[in-house]
Amino acid sequence: MPLPAPQTRNQLHTRNVVFRGYQREDRLWDIEAELLDTKSKVFDILGEGTWLPGEPIHDMTIRVTIDDTFVVHEIAVAMDGSPHAICPQAQAPLQSMIGCTMGRGWRQAIERNMGGIRGCAHLRELLFNMATAAFQTLSQELAANVINHPPAHLGKCMAWDFNGDLVKRDYPVFYAFNKGTNP
């Protein structure tokens, strides 16, 4: 169902964010995220530059390479567009995320390693959501290997409630799962 019709308005800003997941031949996984910000009017930052309508103000890409356990092995980042001359310096702190796991504590690891003035808010935003993209990329592969432990997405939202119809249909062994009594 679409949104209700809006009031008369003028578009000023567009942010496009895309996530892609790839399985590599070496059995590692690449998760890529791109962020592109544009304005609909001429945009000027005193002392930094002027951007024409549609010209990228932020143009950033991150590639995180993980293994089957979601541990980060490599990170590559490109900042092809940024509004301030100092912004590219925010790329280096991403390397401190190598060895972290995209799972419980992921957001805390991002804040600990590159939060506040140690990094870039836009790159952190991409990293936060890359964990979900990683899960979506690996979900079928991981589901095929489920034996004694429920997949990570079960019990994390209304649709995947252990007592719900989807779990009963797709993961019957974990239907009504109780960590204290089930496998």
Defining key terms:
183 residues; four-stranded antiparallel β-sheet; two-stranded antiparallel sheet; 3 helices
Largest sheet: 4 strands, antiparallel
Terminus-to-terminus distance: 40 Å
Q: What average pLDDT do the residues reach?
A: 90
What class would the helix/strand composition place it in? alpha+beta
Question: Share of helix among residues?
Answer: 10-25%
Individual helix count: 3
Number of domains: 2
**Shape designation:** globular
Low-pLDDT runs: none
- What strand line-up does the widest sheet have? 1-2-5-6
Determine the strand fraction and express it as a percent band: 25-35%
Report on this model:
It is a single chain. This protein is of the alpha+beta class and 183 residues long. The protein has 2 domains: 13-145; 150-183, no CATH class. The protein has 3 helices and 6 strands, in the order ββββββααα. The strands form 2 sheets. Strands 1-2-5-6 form a 4-stranded antiparallel β-sheet, with helices on one face. Strands 3-4 form a two-stranded antiparallel sheet. Strand 5 (58-66) and strand 6 (72-81) form a beta hairpin. Helix 1 (106-114) runs antiparallel to helix 2. The protein is globular and about 60 Å long. The model has no long low-confidence stretch (mean pLDDT 90).
